[in-house]
C-alpha cells in the first residue's frame, strides 16, 4: 500500500539500514587505510540496496550466507555492529573474538552463518543449512548472497543442482556488480550469464534493479513468499555497481572514472531519500555516522585478545599417526 504509514515506516527502516551499512564501511575503509584495522576489508558501498531489500523480507529465524564483501549482509540481518567493528580491529569482544577479521564475521544469534573468503563457498553452506531446516521441520528459509564471479566456480553448479533437486527453501541472491575483483565478469563468463545458468538447473530466475531498494524489496518479497509457500529455490539476479575498489586500498584504476561517476549518480540511498522527508533523512544519516564512529573509537580503545585465546575455538586433531 504505497503512501500508507506502514509503507513509509518500511522505507524509513530501509533507508536507516542502508545508511548504517555505508557509515560502517566508510569507517572500516578509513581504519584499513590508516593501518588501525590489520586485515583486508572489501567495501560494498553502492550495493547496499541488495542486502537491505532482501533482508527486509527475512525473519530472525531465517539464515543467510555471505561473501568476502559481507558487512552489508551481516548488518542488514541484524548482526551487532559494535562486535563487527571490534572484529575488524582484531580486538577482544569482536564477532570472532578478534581472531577472524572481516571475512570471517558471523552472528549465529541472528542467523548470519558467515562471511567467506573463498569465492562461492557460501553456496554449499546455504544448501546444507536449507537441508537441515527441511530435515528438522523448521519454518525458516535461507538467503545465499554471492557475486557474479562465483557463477564460474564449481560450487555454484553443485548448489543449484542440489537445491533444485530437493526443492530446498533457498533464495539465491547474485549481486552482479559487473566485476570479479579486477576483471569484468563478462570477460570471463561464457553463455548467457548467471540467470541463464540457474534456470538451466531448474531454479527460476528473476531480475531486479540492485540500485533501487524498492525494486529489490518487491522482487524479494515475491520470491520469499514463493519459497515459504513450498515452491522450492528461487534466484534473484541484482545488477549493481561497486563504487570503491575491490578492497579498501584498491584505487580501481582499471575502470573509467565516468563509469564509476555514473554509478554514484544512481545512488540507492539518494534514490530512496528522494521519496522521504529531507530532515528525517539527514537525521538518520547523522545518527548512522555517529553510531559507527562511536564503534570505531570503542574498537580502538578495546583490549587485544589474551594470548590464551589462540588455543580456543580450534580443533586439536592430534599428531599424525
Ligand atoms: C576460490 C577463490 N578463488 C579466487 C579468489 C580470489 N578472489 C577474491 S574476491 C574475487 C572476485 C570475486 O568476484 P565476485 O564473486 O563477483 O564478488 P565481488 O568481489 O565482485 O563482490 C576473487 C577472484 C578467492 N577468494 N577464492
Automatic annotation (TrEMBL):
<dbReference type="InterPro" id="IPR029061">
    <property type="entry name" value="THDP-binding"/>
</dbReference>
<dbReference type="Pfam" id="PF00676">
    <property type="entry name" value="E1_dh"/>
</dbReference>
<dbReference type="InterPro" id="IPR050642">
    <property type="entry name" value="PDH_E1_Alpha_Subunit"/>
</dbReference>
<protein>
    <submittedName>
        <fullName>Thiamine pyrophosphate-dependent dehydrogenase E1 component subunit alpha</fullName>
    </submittedName>
</protein>
<comment type="function">
    <text>The pyruvate dehydrogenase complex catalyzes the overall conversion of pyruvate to acetyl-CoA and CO(2). It contains multiple copies of three enzymatic components: pyruvate dehydrogenase (E1), dihydrolipoamide acetyltransferase (E2) and lipoamide dehydrogenase (E3).</text>
</comment>
<dbReference type="InterPro" id="IPR001017">
    <property type="entry name" value="DH_E1"/>
</dbReference>
<feature type="domain" description="Dehydrogenase E1 component">
    <location>
        <begin position="17"/>
        <end position="291"/>
    </location>
</feature>
<keyword id="KW-0786">Thiamine pyrophosphate</keyword>
<keyword id="KW-0560">Oxidoreductase</keyword>
